[in-house]
Amino acid sequence: MPPSPASSPRPIRVGLVGYGSAGRGIHAPLIVRAGLELAAVSTSNGDRAEQVRSDHPGTKVVTDLDALLGLPGIDLVVLASPSGVHAEQAERVVDAGIPLVVDKPLAVDASRAIEVVDAAARAGVPLTVFNNRRFDPEHAALLRVRDEGLVGDIWRAEYRWDRWRPVPKERWREQVSASEGGGLMLDLQSHLVDQAVVLHGRIERVYAEIDERTTVADDDTFLACHHTSGVVSHLMASSVNGAPGPRARVAGSAGAYVIGRQVDDVSAFTEFENDGDAVGWIVRGDEREPGPVVTDADQADFYRSVARALAGPDAQSAMPVDPSDAVHVLAVIDAARVSARGQQVVSVITPGEAP
Fold first, then answer.
1. In whole angstroms, what is the distance from residue 136 CA to residue 29 CA?
2. Residues in CB range of 70: below 8 A, 6 or more apart
3. Same domain assignment for residues 188 and 313
């Protein structure tokens, strides 16, 4: 069992696989801010290897996963590699017996994801999935809106992640097929589906419209999800929306809650931007008031939670994200693909769960 950060002379030592936009831009800063040690990074890209040495002097750089798994003293492996290789790499980490964090998605479909979850369970290797959006101020505010009944009984919710990128970026996400891990369904929609499930419960059926307008995989997506709670959520992710809409709009019996655009988006909904520490707005027709105040949400809490789990008696049950949640998210995405092809509502069947 890895040592406890509170009682050990050294923190959890992390081996990070991948140093692209996710590894360098998201995981590495959060790992360090959470008080874990970025002990090693695996990358075969020479320029990125130099970035590691510049960003994190003293961090060991190796060229591949096998070399990283061979290093002594690695307490946790984090996979920030392309989505299409997550499942295979995760199984190799499980075989090595090292606890791991897999960036979302866990795999490219639910059937492959449950294989990884089952392999980790058989081996007794702690596994969690990096759904970092659960730890940001917007999500915390949405939980308060739900739990405190700030808009009454919720019956409909809209969550969206819009961008205007008519010329795609030259990255693997835009250049490989969905079966290889590309596209918005496995990227941004996996965040939105996870958020909707946490807020409103499991999804039992879905209708979807999925298009590839500028890339080989999906870049313009819409899901209508029916939750077991009775809430209907509309989830939109697009790279080709020239006027992005509000990030969230939750409608209920006593009003609506609206979160405006991201700072780097162009939007017609600037009137719903955050007001100081308050996130979003409670709106009732012509009346509105600032939404909940959230000052303590920090995505680094994901890694703080992982460190606490590894120091405890039952690391798997204490992990911040149950990997079975990631399987359900992928089952929703799988059903959405079937829906879009057949232009019909499709029931969600999650591997490992009773029908």
1. 15
2. none
3. no
